[in-house]
Amino acid sequence: MKKNMIGIFTKNRIETFSDGIFAIIVTLLVLEIKVPVIETPGSSTQLIESLIKISPKFISWIISFFTVCVIWVNHHRLFKMFRLISHGIFWLNAFLLLWISFIPFPTAMIGDYPDNVFAAAFYGIIMSLMALAFSLMRIYVVRNRSILESAVNFDEFRQGTVYSIIFGPVLYIVGSCISLVHPYLSFGVYAFIAIYFIFPHATKDIE
Amino acid sequence: MKKNMIGIFTKNRIETFSDGIFAIIVTLLVLEIKVPVIETPGSSTQLIESLIKISPKFISWIISFFTVCVIWVNHHRLFKMFRLISHGIFWLNAFLLLWISFIPFPTAMIGDYPDNVFAAAFYGIIMSLMALAFSLMRIYVVRNRSILESAVNFDEFRQGTVYSIIFGPVLYIVGSCISLVHPYLSFGVYAFIAIYFIFPHATKDIE
Amino acid sequence: MKKNMIGIFTKNRIETFSDGIFAIIVTLLVLEIKVPVIETPGSSTQLIESLIKISPKFISWIISFFTVCVIWVNHHRLFKMFRLISHGIFWLNAFLLLWISFIPFPTAMIGDYPDNVFAAAFYGIIMSLMALAFSLMRIYVVRNRSILESAVNFDEFRQGTVYSIIFGPVLYIVGSCISLVHPYLSFGVYAFIAIYFIFPHATKDIE
Amino acid sequence: MKKNMIGIFTKNRIETFSDGIFAIIVTLLVLEIKVPVIETPGSSTQLIESLIKISPKFISWIISFFTVCVIWVNHHRLFKMFRLISHGIFWLNAFLLLWISFIPFPTAMIGDYPDNVFAAAFYGIIMSLMALAFSLMRIYVVRNRSILESAVNFDEFRQGTVYSIIFGPVLYIVGSCISLVHPYLSFGVYAFIAIYFIFPHATKDIE
């Protein structure tokens, strides 16, 4: 087998594999919300009341949905800058996908126990690990410049890597610690991170 | 990084991501239907009776299945007219996918409580929000003409946007309100919307 | 918009959508098999016995797994012969996917009630409807020859359509009726149909 | 239909189908971990304790996650060497996917019964069958050289096939038998196999 084929992955298949996982996670999140059981099947009042009771599940679902979309955007952006996929990139990507695929669990947990300090902190810890995987991938690329497309500005990329550490793992850990004051404050931070990345001006800074 | 690469997404990866979500939703819908528990495992009569009892679940599944297929067709048609995917399109698409990924929940709810007025209305409200996301995407494109392929007739597109508001969010809200008369009438409206879009003459008007 | 773009779908996106559904169904089948609950967590004997008790679930899973693979092969073969995807093909394909996405339900049902005559018959009825969707798609193509690639031999295709009716819906209905003699005989027929299509000589006749 | 089109599959669609299954399995693994039910919803201590109690589920999930990633890498590598997909390759691939799609079941079982000898052994048996499917595919290719791309070194490929038998089915059976000494030793072997394949020097030997 040709030497230059060893250790190099087909970028397209890794993107398909990753996109599949993103699509599944985004869809599975809603499966954690079960239709509530009510005593009088025909009563609209009971149904509305039971939905209001599980409203934290809807909020945690929406936060996680947009967070996964933001991760997808960042993933898409990062991979567009790669010329090839090395072994290192593949396994750092797998490490990232590990945490992404885990998201339904902490999401369901804050939906079930919205007032639990640890549940709110745990969500932030997992998201922080996910964001860390992203930053590690960027750091790896900074050290292996040949992975980047020639059109990419290396200094901007290195600068973006620093930003990705601050607005990623660090901010999620801050959100996680704030749960000690009140769990709802943590949700606010998590929602803020997602919203912050949705607007292009923000992501432009990072890119 | 080259300036013209910023803020523009790879159309292909967004289609793969969206198609993945469509495929998963269409498949997950049936998972909400559980095999009924019967007392005498060998009794065909008991099994048939138990299936008839859960028949509303089958009806709601079929309506949602074809509705998702119709959404897929519209999504496919719309994206075929796009020359590029801007940030705005991406997040309006994410907003659309949010409601699409939510469909199994209201579907399961009308399957569980077919005679509940609120369950029938809720289904229509969610579908209306989904259809609204579609219309918003079209309105955004009308205001950002450069997104359209040059082969697309702009006047027809603008006209189609008006139709999409009427036959989308407006009609679903009408269906939702009709539940106050009787929930089954709502199902009729929802089924009608799906069937209406299946026939090409209808979609041709819109396109 | 150019007239020749109306009513024609991108073959690639429909294949991706269909492949997604096939992949999900094949994977979800196993989710219906739950880890049995045993009294003594450390007892190997209890665990083995409990697995033997749910062995019909494993058998129904394997039959359905290979049946879905066979459907995938037939779908792949059929679509390779298409030059374009018309509205008719799209909705007949959606009708096919409806039944394919339903397969986990009858599979779980024969796994739960292996000795129930109606469960065995029901599986065959659903598979028969699925196979009918396939035959309808072929009949539609026979009537709309322009859909076929020019390299395809039309007479062979028409002949294959006749075979597809016999070895598809008809044989599944036969298997369904045989359940009146004994449910296990039906499983034999269903397994036979899957195995028959696995060997190339068989599918060559049909193609 | 042209003779050379019979019995040959589109490599791209089989990769998409397989990638879909890989992505779904990797994601579904985490669904087997349910949020524990605690008595005092607001108690962080109770939540932490309940998570520690289900820690074997997290460990089995991580082992299976990386194992599926390793399988994906091997699958990707193997298919990159194929010039075409014959009927034989397709069905050996289906046989491989059967065991891959089954992985959530033995994973959930060792998560539920970490101290059960049979659960630990069963995991190894299933993985062994999966690895056997891989080796069978390689043996088939050794006997049908025309499937390989001309750039592939045949002697290296044949040598790699021998290695794949040793480091695949044989090692998993060894891990399975070791459960008779202690189930935890088996987990160690399973984790070792996954880690061994993550590092490129190892896979280079096999390739």
Output the helix-strand order of chain A.
Answer: HHHHHHHHH
Distance between the termini of chain A: 37 Å
| Helix count, DSSP H or I runs of 4 or more residues of chain A | 9
Largest contact between chains: B-C, 40 and 36 residues
- What is the overall pLDDT average of chain A? 87
Strand-pairing-aware structural class of chain A: mainly alpha
Instruction: Describe the sheet with the most strands of chain A.
Output: none
> For this entry, what is the oligomeric state of its chains?
homotetramer
Describe this structure in words.
- Four copies of one chain form a homotetramer.
- The first copy, chain A, has nine helices and no strands.
- By secondary structure, chain A is mainly alpha-helical.
- Helix content of chain A is 74%, strand content 0%.
- In chain A, helix 4 (87-102) runs antiparallel to helix 6 and helix 7 (154-178) packs antiparallel against helix 8.
- Mean pLDDT of chain A is 87; it is low at 1-6 and 201-207.
- The interface between A and D is large, with 35 and 40 residues.
SSE layout and pairing:
The structure is a homotetramer of 207-residue chains.
Chain A: H1 11-28, H2 44-53, H3 55-80, H4 87-102, H5 104-112, H6 117-143, H7 154-178, H8 183-198, H9 200-206
Would you summarize the structure shown here?
Chain A has 207 residues and is an all-alpha fold. In chain A, 74% of the residues lie in helices and 0% in strands. The first copy, chain A, is built from 9 helices and no strands.
Throw out a few tags for this protein.
homotetramer, 207 residues, mainly alpha, 74% helix, 0% strand, disordered N terminus, disordered C terminus
